## 1
Amino acid sequence: MASTLVDEDRALDSRGPQKTSTVAGAGRFLMSRLRQIGIFLALLVIVTLFQGLTGGALLQPDNVYNIIVQNSYILLLAIGMVMIIVAGHIDLSVGSVAAFVGAMSGIMIRDWSLPWWAALVAALAVGALVGAWQGFWVAYIGIPAFIVTLAGMLVFRGLTQIVLENQRITGFPTEYRQLGGGSLFPGLFPPATNILDWTTVGIGLIATAMLVVSQLRGRANRAKLHLEDEPRAWFLTRLVFGVVVILALTFLLASSRGGTPIVLVVLGVLVVAYSAVMNRTVFGRHVYARGGNLQAAQLSGVNTKRVDFLLFVNMGVLAALAGLVFTGRLNSAGPGAGSLFELDAIAAAFIGGAAVTGGVGTIIGAITGGLIMGVLNNGMSLMGVGIDYQQFIKGLVLLLAVGFDVFNKRRASNALK
C-alpha cells in the first residue's frame, strides 16, 4: 500500500513539470502571435459591441451585405497598400487615381462609345500606366514615394477635374454597374420559394472546404519538413474559428435580399492570389526583404528597383479596379470621387498589423483592418453618431493600432536582451 502511494506521488511529480512546461510553451507561443491574434480579437470585440449597441441591427443580413459592398473599394486598395507599406513606402495618390480612372471609364463609354467590357479593360490599363509613371520616379530616379505620390495626388485630382470639366457623368450600362453593386446569379433561386440563396450557400461550402484542405495540407507539409511549431490545440482552434466565420457569413448573405455580391467574389479571388504571392513566391520574399533591410536585400542580390517599380504598377491597377467598383456602385463619376480613400487604405493596413518601418504585414491582416474600419463606420452610423465624432474615433483607433505595434517591437527587443 505504501509503495503504491509512493509510486503515484512520483508519477504526479513527473507529470507536474511536464504539464507546467506545456502550458508555459503554449503561453509563449500565443505571446509570439500576439500581433496576429490581437487584430482578430479586436474585430470580434468591435462586432460584438456594436451588435449590442445597435440592438442587433449590425448583423442583420441586409446590413452585412451593405457593409461588404460599401467597403469593397477600400479593401481592394488595402491589398495593394499593405504591399507598398511592407516594402517601406507609402502611396498617397490612390484616391485620386481611383477618381481619375473612374472618370476615364465614363469618358470612354459616353464620348468614345466603347463597349462596357472594353472600357473596363482600358481603365485597368490606364491604372497600370499611372502606377508605372509613379514607380519610375520612385524606383529609378530615387525620389521618396511620399513626395512622388503626394504630387500624384494633386496631379490626378486635377486631371479628373479636367477630363470631367468639373461635371458629373451618370447613366452607365447595367453590366458596368454590376461590378460595384451587383449580385452573383440574382434570381436563380427566387426568394419566394427559397428561404436561403442557394448560390451563396454553395459558394460558402466550397470556401469552407478549401480552407480546411489548405490548412491541413499546409500543416502536413510543414511537419514533413520539421518546420511545424504551432501547437495542435491552437491549430484546431484557429481552423474552427475560420470555418465558423465563413459559415456565419454564408448564412447571413444567403438570408439577405442581395445574396453574394460580385465584388465579394472578386475580393476573395484577389485575397487568395495575393496571399499566395506574398507567402509562396520569390517576389513576395523580395518585398519583405526590401522592407526589412534595404541594404541587406541589395547585397543578397535582390533587384530592389524592379520590386519597387512592380509594386507601384500593381497599386495602380488595384486603384483602377477600386475606382471602377466605386463608380459602378454609385452609377456616376464625379470630380470629388475617391476623397480620403488613401487614408482609409493606409489605416486598414496599419490597423491590420503592418509595421510603420516596413518588413511586416499580411494581406489577411489588411483586410481585417479594413473590416474594422467598415464596422466602425457602419455601427456609428446606425447609432446616429455624427461624422465629426466618427473621424475622431477612427483617428484614436489608428493611433492605438500603431501604438500596439510599437509595444510589440519593444517587448520583442527586450526579450532578446
Note: The beta strands are 169-170, 332-333.
## 2
Amino acid sequence: MNLVYADEQGQVYDHPTLYGLARSADMIVEIMEDELIPLPEGATLVGLPCTRPIGMDPDTGEMKPLPGNVQAVGALLPQGFTRLCLPGYVKTDKDYKLPLFGYSAVVWKDGQFLVTARQSDDTEKWNPLNCDPLELKQQVKELKSRYPDNRLYDHLSNCALGYECLTASNTFLNRWEGAVPVSYSCNAGCFGCISEQPDDSGFVSPQTRMNFRPRVEELVEIMLEHLKTPESIISFGQGCEGEPSTQAKLIIESIREVRRQTDIGYININTNAGLSDHIRGIVDAGLDLMRVSTISALDDHYNAYYKPRGYTLANVEKSLKYASEQGVYTSINYLVFPGVTDREEELEAMIEFARRTKLRLIQLRNLNIDPESYLGLIPKAKGDVLGMKQAIEIFQEELPDVVIGSYTHVPPAELARVKVRG
C-alpha cells in the first residue's frame, strides 16, 4: 500500500518504498486491508496545500514525513460512499485552512488507487457521470424559456451548471430528487456552512446563498413540473440556502396548492428541525419525507458545530418525533468524521436518539471541513475510538429496522404516508 503524494504542480505519484498512512481525528494510524476499496468511479484526487504526507518504512515501522516540495493527496468521494479514514499528513502552515471538502485517505497498490471507504448506498442515481452536460444545458434553456418570470429556475441554473449540483440538475432533468430552495435566512451558524461564512472565519464558502424570497407561484411551478412520476421527490432545503423552515408560511401554502392539484411523488424537507412549531405546520400541510441534519446527539458537540439560535437539540428531537408520529418517513443527514463519529460516547448517544425518534433512515454524509479547525472546536473524546467501519457495523446491529444509506429514499410501500388532497 504505497504512499500517494503530489508535487507543487499537482502531479500525483506513488512512493516506491514508503507505505501510505491515514488519520483518525488527529492520530496517525495504519490502514487496514478491510478498509480499502478501489477508487470509485466519479471520485477525484486532490492535493492538500500546506501539508506534508506521512509514510511508514515497512522494514522498521518508522512513521516519517516525506521531504521536499510535496503535499498530501486526498480523495473526494462521490455520494453513496462513506469515508473511513482521513489522509495521513501534518500541516506545514498551522494557520492554513483546507477548503470545505471531505478528504479520504488514498494509497496505491497492485496498479490502482485504493481509498479508505465503504459503499453505503446504490450510487447509480448520484453518479456525476450519469448527468449528461449537453442534455442538462438544453433542459436549463428549455425550462427557463417556459418560465421566464420564475427566479428560482434562474437561481438553480447556476447551481446546476456552475456548481454542478446534482439535485439542482435533477430539477431540470425532471428525475429523482430535485431541488426547490426557499430560504435566504438561517437559525443556526454552522461552523462548516457551505453557503455563508463570517468574514473572519478563514473559510471560503464554495456556494453562494440565494438572496431573495420566492413567491408561492414560483415554488408551485417547480414542484408541479417535477412531481410527475411515482418516485419523484422535490426537496426544500439545499446547500445554496439557509434553513427552509424559517419560510414555513411559503412552504405550507405551496404544499397545500400542489397537493390540491396532484398526489403524485413525494415532498421532502432537508432541515435542522429546530423550529418545532414551524415543522409541525409543514408536516400537517402534507409533508411526506423529512431529513434532519445533525452531527451528534450530544448537546455540547451539537452546539459547538451548529451554534443554534433560539433552539436546542431537544427541539430537534421533538420535531422528529412529531413527524414520525404523523407518518412522515424520517431520516437524519448524519455528518460523519473519522475519529469523532466512531467514539463510544457518540455511538451510544446516537443509537438512543434514533430509537427515541423512531428514525427510518440514517444518511451517512462525509463532513466537509478543515480537520484541524473542527477538532479544535468540539469536545475531546471521553471513551475509546472504535473506527468508522466498526461504528457502522454497530449501527446496523443495534438498529436493525433503520436503513443505513447515504441519500433520501422513497419509502417502502407499506410505510408510505397516505396523501390526502385538499
Note: The first helix runs from residue 133 to 146.
